[in-house]
Fold:
Amino acid sequence: MTTQISSSGAVWQGQAPLLCLARREETPDSASFEFAVPAGQRAVFLAGQFISLAPVIDGATHYRAYSIASAPDRAQTLTLGIRRVDDGLVSNWLLDNLRAGMTLDALAPAGSFCLPPDELPATLLLLSAGSGITPMLSMARAALASHRAVEVYFVHSARSEDDLMFADALQELAARHAHFHLELFLSRPVGRYACQAGRLDADRLGAVLPRIDGAHAYLCGQDGYMDMATAALRTLGLPEAAIHRESFVATASEVSADAMRYRLSVPSFGTEATIAAGESLLDVLEREGLPIIGACRTGVCGSCKCRVVDGEVESASQLPLSAQEIEDGFVLACSSHASGDVTLALG
Structure:
């Protein structure tokens, strides 16, 4: 099959079908996928952003956000890295079913965790663990393609070589670019790649990093990993404003058996439901079959925003909302819990 990919066109916005051009097995439990953007369109995004895939599973559409690994200058194709996770409905379905030649709906690139192309620091610190490598790879590629004198220090942690996603891509960047400094920390290495044996900690991080005056650091991984790296960077003298974190670790609503119950109303859909204290608005809206998109489910992407018409909610994240949206009563359903009866408007 030959696919013609246009080098020009309108900017891709909203939801559209993507053609899977290729699949590559990265590790026993992960793969990377290359997609062609919609015909006649081009993807505009910043390194570090994501798209939201929307597969139909058992008759229902599910949205999940996945970071882009390719560089922004590849406007007609996008590469995503996806890893199998325990009870991961969408990720595991994609790994079990998605093959080259298949078409899948997706939402256009979004996300506030990104590398500003016009404000590249002289020293760029990219720290990741596990599948957190994906947005870091896009940032590294973007910085190296900028033709500016950016020293990129890429520090990545994994269990072993068999768990190292994008291994060939990392080795290629290290071989081609003198400004790309790769430091791998493998808990159980077998000698396939040059690496530091054992887990990364604050002392070892300080030993591999250069002077960090004027540097900016981008972190992606489990919260414990990012907490450790953040504390180490602060100790080394990096200011808080120069440390940027990303996390797509969704946390399930915790609802106790004796939790207070409230009324959740969505008048435009004629819906009245019960919501428990500690239960997210998104959980209830999805349970009631209402048209809400929960893509990242961590308060990052903004796809699940809705407006509180009456009542009060407590929100753990407002990250993608503008000041005007917050003033107008918009909240993120995935990160908000009712503290009493609440009425919502969708759309």
About this structure: The radius of gyration is 21 Å.
